[in-house]
Amino acid sequence: MNSTPAIALDHVSKWYGQVIGVNDVSLAIDGGVTGILGMNGAGKSTLFKLLMGRLRPSNGSVKLFGTDPWETTSPYRRVGYVSESEKMYDWMTSLDFVSTLARLHGMTRYEAEKRAEQALSFVDLEGVLNKEIGKYSKGMRQRVKIAAALVHDPDLLILDEPLHGCDPLARTSIMNVIREMGSKGKTVLVSSHILEEIERITEQIVILHSGKLVALGNLHAIRAMLDKHPHRILIRCADSRALASTFIDQQPVYGVRFIDSESLEIMTKDLSEAHQLLPTLILKSGIQIYSIENPDDNLESLLAYLVGDA
Amino acid sequence: MSDTIEEGGLGEADIEAAYGSGDGDLDTSATVASTPKGQIFEQIYRPWNGPLGPRWVRNYAIYRHHVYGIISGSGHRRYHPFVRLALLVVILGSMTPILMLLLSSMVSGDATGFLNRMWGVNRYNLWGNVLGYFPRNLCMWPLLTALVVGGLVSDDRKNGTSALYFSRPISRLDYASMKWLSAASVLATVIILTYMMYYSAAIVFKGEGWSFIADTIPIFIGGLVAGIFLVFTYTSIGIALSSISTSRFTASVSFLGLILGSKIVAWLVEIQFETTYIYLLSPYDCLAHLGQWLVGLPSNYDHPLIMSVVSLLAMNAASLSIFASRVSSLEVTRE
Fold first, then answer.
1. What is the DSSP string of B101-134?
2. Of B48, B57, B64, which has the smallest distance from its Cβ to A106's Cβ?
3. Within a 10 A sphere around the Cβ of B204, how many other Cβ atoms?
4. B221 FRET partner, CA 20 to 30 A, in A20, A290, B139, B250?
5. Testing the interface with B: which of A87, A93, A104, A173 to mutate, by most B Cβ within 10 A?
6. Which of B40, B159, B333 comes nearest A172 by C-beta?
7. Cβ distance of A104 and B168 shorter than 8 Å
8. Contact A153 B48 (CB under 8 A)
9. What mean pLDDT is predicted for residues B105-121?
């Protein structure tokens, strides 16, 4: 079994003069879809440029499949990259564009065209593959870039803001592609500053802030580790005060806040224990429950907590 | 409340006259334009298990992309129709002596006549076919180089497409060498191939024998070597200028300015101060000086040949090092 991860960064830093792009980032990623999250200027694009050998780290080492991408191009045979840049050969048809890039992997003309057709079909562009890219919509252009990244069947797919500027239909299509690639056992790294996009694709996340790695791992696991911020459980019920009286003396409950007569918020440091306890207490109280939600068990609040702490 | 309108007050007819035509204004129904329903397609990913070709196949793809674009518009680097037309004119212009040789062979008794003296194979004509100033090095070769090499790297920088190469298994050396080679081959096709065609045409049209070939082949080879130096130098200077520019126009004009400007300045200095040393700054004159020595012509320059050779080597080294440093630092990927 090969133990070399697809991506390995060891104490990587990158400075642009006095400005820090990436600050002492160490991580290893292998298999499945991982979302890179961060505000604008967090260091996502710098990280991707380091991975793609476009920048040399000021400190530390970057490895793709165990090889330094700045020193050698060999890892790129297994990497598909969708850059943030909009630039393409607009005068080419998507078939020509994708097959031209396929030929840069050493495919023959016949192989390249056949494979380009398959890749374009995979991103649902088979009907327009002989149309010039310059006449494509934004979403179609993004899908051409994804097809170009997939054309050589890479093991690692790096997507820099692939959903940027796409309409909802194109977003859904591209998300489907990403999920499908992840389910095929490929390593997919996808960046975004829109939390709900990443949340719909994967729960495996890397959060960057001001060039620093602030969290890495499963979204819910990271949330559970944030002891400073109690989990909130929002319950809508027929009588919030009566329900609160049944919770207040329970061990996992940290606090209770009344929002209105039919809504209350329970704060707990142990979400799973609280959820185990809830059904019994609700049944015992006999109060009608309309809904139970975990409002801060999502990326947005997680990012707010982490960035606030960072 | 009564809906009755008082006499003399605003009635329904008055209100409609003031605010609308009354035909359907008060209807509460609306029609929404129908839009096609969205469609989410089903992805079926088909992995590709074929082998990926070796380095030379990948490099050939870069080379082919640049060179074939001159002939075929689809699927390759785009050359503007004007550029293609200009290339055609330059090629046809450089083949004029072949036509004149044909004409000379068809005119009886011209073996020592005007046409043969003007366009037949001799030292001056072999040198002139590559290094003659007018029209070739004034109008044709610099223009050809500016059109072909000017946008070679700067277009990629301007369009941000050089990054496409470096996300594939293409090394910086492969990228730089294939870009250089593709430009050099286009120049060589026009400059050297037409020179070879001219020499071959002289043999074929005139029915020359082995003695003619034995007499002229050393001069021909001298001209050929001079042509190779010219292609090498012009390509190197052109590509270096292209790599430091984000505009095809700037790179092309800079190249023309460098080749023609240095020549003109050197000429002005020569007529003013009667010295040819300033020609060491002119790439064309260094090549011409070397070319004269290679084909055995008397030199037009007062300074020693070695100085022109050293200057030529320095120009090439400087150009290639600029290009190499721009590529190795990946500055060429910056938009």
1. HHHHHHSTT-TTSHHHHHHSSSHHHHHHHHH-II
2. B57
3. 14
4. B139
5. A104
6. B40
7. yes
8. yes
9. 75
* pLDDT bucket at B197, cuts 50 / 70 / 90: very high
Token pair of A158, please?
């790096």
Mark yes or no for CB contact A180/B43 under 8 Å. yes
On whether the CB atoms of residues B287 and B312 are closer than 8 A, the answer is yes
Chain B, nearest residue to A176 by Cα: B43
Cβ-nearest to B159 among A73, A79, A87: A87
How do residues A118-157 score in pLDDT, each as one tens digit?
999 888 888 899 999 999 988 889 889 999 999 988 999 9
Tell me which residue of A26, A29, A24 sits closest to A7, measured CA to CA: A29
Cα A109 to Cα A107: distance, rounded to the nearest angstrom: 6
Structure tokens at B191: 């400059």
Q: Are B44 and A103 in contact (CB < 8 Å)? A: no
Domain boundaries in chain B?
55-333
pLDDT score of B297 more than 50: yes
Could you tell me what percent of chain A has a pLDDT over 70? 95
Q: Is residue A279 predicted with pLDDT exceeding 90?
A: no
CB contact under 8 A, A99 and B58: no
What distance in Å separates the CA atoms of residue B214 and residue B211, rounded to the nearest whole number?
Answer: 5
Q: pLDDT for A164-179, tens place per residue?
A: 877 788 888 888 888 8
Nearest CA to CA, how far is A124 from chain B (Å)? 7
Mean pLDDT of the region B243-258: 92
How many residues can be counted in chain B?
Answer: 335
Structural domains in chain A, CATH included, are 7-223 (3.40.50.300), 226-309 (3.30.70.100)
| Residue B165 C-alpha, separation from nearest chain A C-alpha, in angstroms | 8
pTM for this prediction:
0.79
Q: Residues in chain B whose beta carbon is closer than 8 A to a beta carbon of chain A?
A: 38-41, 43-55, 57-58, 61-62, 64-65, 74-76, 78, 159-161, 163-171, 330, 333, 335
